[in-house]
């Protein structure tokens, strides 16, 4: 019987994993900082539990673990999906601005420390499980990212947090093997989720262009499918698995788009100025036109009157 503890289970990939596992008969715990998780757990019913947990806080995780032990007796699957993203280059040369310290710390706090914090506490509970036929007691699955291997310049901080996550896979697997606990890293490419929702269409198009096939964003359900396979297969251990549609970062393509975006913005600005000038000239021209037309109509009107008078005189004769 599977009891899965899923951090970040309120949204995106974590939520899809919770739904899939619950559907297959597992008990699931959604540990998330967002109270949206309560609704998700409520929707799943009896065998689901939500605990409002900040993965960065030892106190939160310990309290959450206590609830889980009381309700489900223990945990044999840990999915570390809680994560945050932020984009900034190491130095913004145009505005002379170095990378924000707060963003860097925020990403490391959640993605690296938070994941490590939950794992270090949870594996103690896992080690209490009775071993199965393969002498295994549980599995830890960490959501790393393809950005651990292919980070663009704007993801220097995020990408390196994910390298740290991937870097934990093997030493954790080695350290926990004697207790029959496996550790696997999953490295998804761009996936449709609340995390990627703010990306603009031209940015999505650029990333899709760097994928081999399929040429689209992945779905959270497709990642959940791989997670399920990793849980079920006792042979998978100590490995970081990419699920990224063959994505390879392309520096030239990225640069061309960034340059063309700047160039287009400059063109649009210049075009705006030009349109402004033209419309000013047009309105002057229009005003002149009105005067000319007015003059013509007055002249022609005057001419008609005199013709009428002329013919009137002629008729009178
Ligand atoms: N979406 C992608 O394209 C993609 C690609 C590669 C890797 N990933 C990784 O997969 C994981 C899930 O991503 P997602 O797309 O589902 O993101 P998401 O933003 O949809 O969900 C992340 C969840 O983590 C929770 N969370 C954030 N900080 C937390 C904290 N301190 N404590 C507890 N919960 C916290 C959020 O409330 C949210 O529910 C992340 O680790 C992400 O870095 C995502």
Automatic annotation (TrEMBL):
InterPro entries: NAD(P)-bd_dom_sf, Sc_DH/Rdtase_CS, SDR_fam. It holds the Pfam family adh_short. Gene3D superfamilies: NAD(P)-binding Rossmann-like Domain. It comes from Heterotrigona itama. The lineage of its organism: Eukaryota, Metazoa, Ecdysozoa, Arthropoda, Hexapoda. Keywords: Oxidoreductase. This is Uncharacterized protein. PANTHER family: 17-BETA-HYDROXYSTEROID DEHYDROGENASE 14-RELATED, SHORT-CHAIN DEHYDROGENASE/REDUCTASE. The keyword Oxidoreductase applies. SUPFAM superfamilies: NAD(P)-binding Rossmann-fold domains. One of its GO terms (molecular function) is oxidoreductase activity. Belongs to the short-chain dehydrogenases/reductases (SDR) family.
């Amino acid at each position: 019987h599977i009891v899965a503890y899923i951090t970040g289970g309120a949204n995106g990939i974590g939520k899809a994993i919770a739904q899939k596992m619950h559907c297959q008969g597992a008990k699931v715990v959604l540990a998330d900082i967002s109270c949206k998780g309560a609704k998700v757990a409520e929707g799943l019913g009896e065998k689901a539990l939500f605990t409002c947990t900040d993965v960065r806080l030892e106190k939160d995780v310990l309290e959450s673990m206590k609830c889980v032990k009381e309700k489900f007796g223990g945990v044999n699957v840990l999915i570390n999906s809680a994560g945050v993203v932020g984009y900034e280059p190491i130095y913004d040369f145009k505005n002379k601005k170095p990378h924000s310290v707060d963003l860097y710390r925020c990403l490391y706090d959640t993605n690296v420390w938070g994941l490590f914090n939950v794992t270090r506490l949870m594996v103690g509970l896992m080690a209490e499980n009775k071993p199965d036929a393969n002498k295994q007691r549980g599995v830890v699955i960490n959501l790393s990212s393809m950005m651990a291997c292919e980070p663009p310049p704007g993801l220097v901080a995020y990408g390196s947090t994910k390298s740290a996550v991937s870097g934990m896979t093997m030493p954790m697997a080695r350290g926990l093997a004697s207790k029959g606990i496996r550790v696997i890293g999953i490295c998804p490419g761009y996936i449709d989720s609340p995390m990627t929702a703010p990306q603009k269409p031209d940015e999505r198009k650029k990333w899709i262009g760097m994928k081999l096939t399929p040429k689209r964003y992945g779905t959270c359900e497709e990642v959940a499918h791989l997670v399920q396979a990793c849980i079920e297969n006792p042979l998978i251990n100590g490995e970081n698995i990419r699920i990224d549609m063959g994505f390879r970062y392309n520096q030239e393509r990225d640069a061309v788009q960034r340059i063309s975006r700047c160039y287009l913005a400059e063109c649009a600005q210049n075009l705006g100025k030009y349109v402004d000038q033209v419309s000013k000239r047009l309105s002057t021209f229009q005003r002149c036109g009105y005067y000319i037309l007015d003059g013509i109509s007055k002249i022609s009107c005057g001419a008609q009157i005199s013709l009428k008078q002329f013919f009137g005189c002629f008729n009178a004769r």
